[in-house]
Amino acid sequence: MAHRLALATLAATCVLILLGGLVTNTGAALAVPDWPSTFGYNMVLFPWSRMVGGVFYEHSHRLMGALVGLLTLALGGALWREGGRLRRLGLLAVAVVLAQGVLGGLRVVLLEDALAILHGSLAPAFFALLAAIALLTAPRGRVAGARVEPVLKGLTVLAAALVYVQIVAGALLTHAGRIALHLAGAALVFAVVPIVTARLRRTDDPVAVPLSRLLLVLLGVQLLLGVGSFMARFSAFWIPGEQLTVVALPVAHRLVGSLILAAIVILAVRVSGVASLSYQADPAMRSRVASSAYRVDHATQSHAASVSDAASAPNRVDQTMRSRVASIQGHPRSEPASRTPLQ
């Protein structure tokens, strides 16, 4: 249940980040001037007929944010029953989604760019947190991964930190025009992350190996989107699609950046052994796994016993028949009366 909720919340948050990018890059962030109401209406009762232009993007973003909030509350409840580390992660997710909603609302009310930067930086972090929760609640994620050297663990955590700093630099570029920091961060990310993925692919870990390959693909896509976004905003070159391309490129760039952060955070959690630590620290989880293992072992033994009985049945029948034949052959036969004449 918790794993399915985590995946649903993760998918909804992905859509929310996409809508947030559309709000920012279409200039619709202030299309609705009030909060938490929408033009005086209750947010969920605002007429669909009035959702046109920038209002459509902004109000859709609010509605999706409300859905993500409800899903996160449900996820927090499910993780509370799990206990241990997962319970704390659920509480953290609820706290972050509440903070994100308040930041988004205050951005509208106070008109502060600093709040927009915080709002844009916190969303990918929340997305990565949900990805880690999805890993830790998955059956495969609860199995301890392959052993890796401490240096690789440190490199993976460093790569995750660099990716997040790069996302914050991207928010600064979007709202404050600071491009130098973003370009420097991109150079560091493309220098460190491929090294980490190359070393992780040699671990034979069932989670880390395919995810490392996917991360390399995402990096390649992100590089192309970054170059396209730079040309669309800072160059005079003509770009096919014009306004549509100018909006789509940075929106996709922001979304892929969140996916990269989620992937590298999953890898960091995987190689750090948090999954196995969660298993060891949670008696309920150990009990469920042990119970499942007992049922599987008992069923296997029962099946083996039934197969053995079926195989030995013909032998028992054969032994019974031989015993009966032997008893018949060994029975003393009645001799006829003596024909010797009486003397």
Supply database-style keywords.
single chain, 343 residues, mainly alpha, 2 domains, disordered C terminus
Number of domains: 2
| Beta-strand proportion | under 5%
Task: Please give the number of β-strands.
Answer: 0
What Rg do the Cα atoms give?
33 Å
- Give unreliable regions as ranges: 275-282, 288-294, 324-343
Judged by helices, strands and strand pairing, the structural class is mainly alpha
Helix-strand string: HHHHHHHHHH
Largest sheet: none
Tell me the helix content. over 70%
Characterization of this structure:
The longest helix has 47 residues, at 283-329. The protein starts with a helix and ends in a 14-residue tail after the last helix. It has ten helices and no strands. With 343 residues, it is mainly alpha-helical. It folds into two domains: 1-138; 144-282. Helix 1 (2-25) packs antiparallel against helix 2 (54-82) and helix 6 packs antiparallel against helix 7 (208-234).
